[in-house]
Amino acid sequence: MTDITPLPYRGRFAPSPTGLLHRGSLAAALASWLDARAHAGTWLVRIEDIDPPRDIPGADRAILSALEGFGLVSDEPVLWQHDRYDAYEEALARLVASGFVYGCACSRKDVKEADERLGIPYPVYPGTCRTGTNGRAVRALRFRVPDRDVAFDDRWYGHYAQNVEKAVGDFVVKRADGLWAYQLAVVTDDIASGVTDVVRGADLLDNTPRQIVLTEALGARTPRYMHLPLVLNDRGEKLSKQQGATPVDVTNPLGELERAARHLGLPAIGADSAEAFLRAALPLWAERIASLPVKVESGRH
């Protein structure tokens, strides 16, 4: 029987230190903070620094400093993923013991060649090593996905469904280079932090079914999700640190907050401090989310 006992709202903002805070990230941070406050909840910050080759030294502290300048401060101590490797090992061991994880010997070239032979789009993993590696050395560990639609009701976009096996295939939970994969780390941390609500950019919408099946495999409740429209550059492309997105202007917090609020569909606010801006934005956000397809309802979690 599914437990539908309501839980206190716990949201989070989880930037990666591959660059400084940019306008797309600020919009997500503001929305997640406002949503937590609108539901009398707790707002957490997590630094997702599990990819050292891409992380920029000092970016984590710069992001936290920028957030503080905008009045966005974690309600609990900030969590760094580099401190969480033992927890990921434990989660992986549970998945292995339950038969959800297996070793894979395939390189990217192997996957591409197999996809071409089978006529399926790359990089969908075709399940080559599901029954063993035929003596080849294991390169990575993969999660065995169910062959069914995984559906959820996104608070912004409404109903979303994906057959993970057909869209992605069995996905990596520990990489060939020994680093932890994003999906396992984020799910493990959301469970450990008691996250009930995830508010983030729409670029992660199609990741959500993978995170749902992982959450279910670990025996935890699935959070509610809200995926926000992306902030785009002048070429209509998603802002990203990897694409060299311009960092937010920390010397103009009100201007940056106003721009983020407009992106989220809020009217112009006008305030003389970041704190006053956030106070004024809160009832406007509550009104904004009342018009969304899916509401946060007590006991429906």
Could you list the spans in which at least 5 consecutive residues all have pLDDT below 50? none
Order of helices and strands: EHEHEHEHEEEHEHEHEHH
Kindly report how far apart the N and C termini lie. Answer: 14 Å
What strand order characterises the main sheet?
Answer: 3-2-1-9-10
**Count of extended strands:** 10
CATH architecture of one domain: 3-Layer(aba) Sandwich
Shape: globular
Structural class: alpha/beta
CATH class of one domain: Alpha Beta
- The percentage of residues in β strands lies in 15-25%
Described by strand count, sense and barrel closure, the largest sheet is:
5 strands, parallel
CATH-level-4 superfamily name of one domain: HUPs
| Tally of helical segments | 9
CATH topological fold name of one domain: Rossmann fold
Mean of pLDDT: 93
Radius of gyration: 20 Å
Tell me the helix content. 25-40%
Brief summary:
The protein has helices spanning 23-38, 59-69, 85-97, 108-118, 164-167, 182-192, 208-217, 253-263, 274-289; strands spanning 10-13, 42-47, 79-80, 101-104, 140-143, 149-154, 158-163, 171-174, 197-201, 224-228.
Detailed description of the structure:
By secondary structure, the chain is of the alpha/beta class. It has a domain at 10-83 and 187-291: HUPs (Rossmann fold). It is built from nine helices and ten strands. The chain has helices at residues 23-38, 59-69, 85-97, 108-118, 164-167, 182-192, 208-217, 253-263, 274-289; strands at 10-13, 42-47, 79-80, 101-104, 140-143, 149-154, 158-163, 171-174, 197-201, 224-228. The protein has a five-stranded parallel sheet. It has a three-stranded antiparallel sheet with strand order 4-5-8. The protein has a two-stranded antiparallel sheet with strand order 6-7. Strand 6 (149-154) and strand 7 form a beta hairpin. Helix 1 packs across helix 8, helix 1 (23-38) packs across helix 9 (274-289) and helix 6 (182-192) crosses helix 7. The chain is globular and about 65 Å long.
